[in-house]
């Protein structure tokens, strides 16, 4: 699903976002990415979503070599990758329904199918009753759920989330993580960046740790104990 082979990202001015990172994430895994601010978490996610390109190394996602992908192929790659951001990035001049529908409109999906998919996605995140609301009238947790619905409405095989619970209280953070677990249980691969170590430890999933652009730890969950 995702394969980094000695990938580095250097920015103009000499700043290194990632340095010689090698890792593999299999299809249907749910993996967390952690590290201090500036460790390279967002850079790694941006490379997978092709918001940035690697400076060196090879990066394969969904059997595509992103290091060789041409610019005109980028939109097709992004259709297979749902992205969730800490700041939601909702369009406040459009309704909740229209925000969630946006990826489908861009992809040229028919009006009737858009309605069906958007309402299914909103129902999944518990916001079907808010479809005609303006995003600004929603709470922070509700806005994050709209962002999640938008990321999954096109049924991508891979979802990336950059600090999706960073602005939420512990109870809401746990609810969002439970939503992610539900998506993972139906076969979606998830890579979630978070600095909330306590929350991640309760999820019992693989945790990748970055420091100064380098992968310094890869902790896999211990097998669950036998029946009680």
From TrEMBL:
<dbReference type="Pfam" id="PF00005">
    <property type="entry name" value="ABC_tran"/>
</dbReference>
<dbReference type="GO" id="GO:0022857">
    <property type="term" value="F:transmembrane transporter activity"/>
</dbReference>
<keyword id="KW-0067">ATP-binding</keyword>
<dbReference type="GO" id="GO:0005524">
    <property type="term" value="F:ATP binding"/>
</dbReference>
<dbReference type="InterPro" id="IPR003593">
    <property type="entry name" value="AAA+_ATPase"/>
</dbReference>
<dbReference type="InterPro" id="IPR005286">
    <property type="entry name" value="Cell_div_FtsE"/>
</dbReference>
<keyword id="KW-0132">Cell division</keyword>
<dbReference type="InterPro" id="IPR017871">
    <property type="entry name" value="ABC_transporter-like_CS"/>
</dbReference>
<protein>
    <recommendedName>
        <fullName>Cell division ATP-binding protein FtsE</fullName>
    </recommendedName>
</protein>
<dbReference type="InterPro" id="IPR003439">
    <property type="entry name" value="ABC_transporter-like_ATP-bd"/>
</dbReference>
<keyword id="KW-1003">Cell membrane</keyword>
<dbReference type="InterPro" id="IPR015854">
    <property type="entry name" value="ABC_transpr_LolD-like"/>
</dbReference>
<dbReference type="GO" id="GO:0005886">
    <property type="term" value="C:plasma membrane"/>
</dbReference>
<keyword id="KW-0472">Membrane</keyword>
<dbReference type="InterPro" id="IPR027417">
    <property type="entry name" value="P-loop_NTPase"/>
</dbReference>
<comment type="function">
    <text>Part of the ABC transporter FtsEX involved in cellular division. Important for assembly or stability of the septal ring.</text>
</comment>
<keyword id="KW-0547">Nucleotide-binding</keyword>
<feature type="domain" description="ABC transporter">
    <location>
        <begin position="2"/>
        <end position="228"/>
    </location>
</feature>
<comment type="similarity">
    <text>Belongs to the ABC transporter superfamily.</text>
</comment>
<keyword id="KW-0131">Cell cycle</keyword>
<dbReference type="GO" id="GO:0016887">
    <property type="term" value="F:ATP hydrolysis activity"/>
</dbReference>
<comment type="subunit">
    <text>Homodimer. Forms a membrane-associated complex with FtsX.</text>
</comment>
<dbReference type="GO" id="GO:0051301">
    <property type="term" value="P:cell division"/>
</dbReference>
